Amino acid sequence: MIARRAALGLMGGLAGAALMPVAATARTPRKPSRLRQGDTVGLVAPASAVTVPYELDRAIHWIRGMGLVPKIGRHVADQDGYLAGRDIDRAADIDAMFADPEVRALFAVRGGWGGARILPLLDWASIRANPKLLIGYSDTTALHLAIAARAGFPTLHAPNAASRWEAASWESLWHIAFAGAMPVLGGEEVERASGRVARILVPGSTRGRLLGGNLTILSTLMGTGWLPAFDGAILFLEDIGEEPYRVDRMLQHLKLAGVFDRVNGVVFGQCTRCTSPDPDYAGFLLDDVIDRHLAGLDKPVIAGFNTGHVANQLTLPINVPVELDTASRTLRMLEPAVG
User: What is the edge-to-edge ordering of all strands in the sheet holding 199-202?
Assistant: First the structure.
């Protein structure tokens, strides 16, 4: 068995229905099993085509560096326009991995766009019967939230398999997925290492299930019936390449849908390259938009948390109870994500 630090050293050496949401199942589902060195994990491409040179090879490299054995989805290398093959084939790969007793978890190779297209095609009875960690972020948000709504077990918002797995990302994944621990995520030490300090918009502490992900994907799913209930949740958000007015529009969408009224707290992560390309731009900046929507809420809020399309992003446990403490700018897990 490869020890955690040995695996980390190996990786460090690698190169670069209607309008109301659907509540999770009333019966508490089994949690996914924790990962162990030597486990087989499935690599799937639920969204955009894997077209970047060596992208799949890089994903395999990282997975092996974690001490895991990659099993490639049958259609991962397919391409249908900008998608990783036909919707029915991408869904079939995910169904096959959940049903395969040899596979212990699923990693999305990359994000992009397309996960929402396959939600109605998935075998939800089989997914509910075979809880496994789904690991990925960005467009994978569609699957994370649908699993929270339709299957009820935890998943992990973490780098995609082909992303760069820096130390902080790997460490937090190891603690949560391999050790079955309940780490404190974020805080001064992480901020100092990343150079990104979170801002306290509304002070306080609160508890709730952690739900969220990519703002664009979440906003797109509002009103579809594929979202979990946000009542009492801690909502986290991130995005990339959205100008301030678009972030404004999506946050307004969530506000009008009543999401901010129902949650217990909000964590806004990183919004990478979310500025106007116009050098003469004189409108609101991103922080202005975030503050106008979130600083007036009567519940704890922080912005600039270390999650999103950035280096060393933390692994966040979706659909797991956490405690948000704005004073320390941390999320503390209240129960393990794995069984």
Answer: 184-186, 330-333, 321-325, 205-214, 234-240, 265-272, 301-303, 199-202
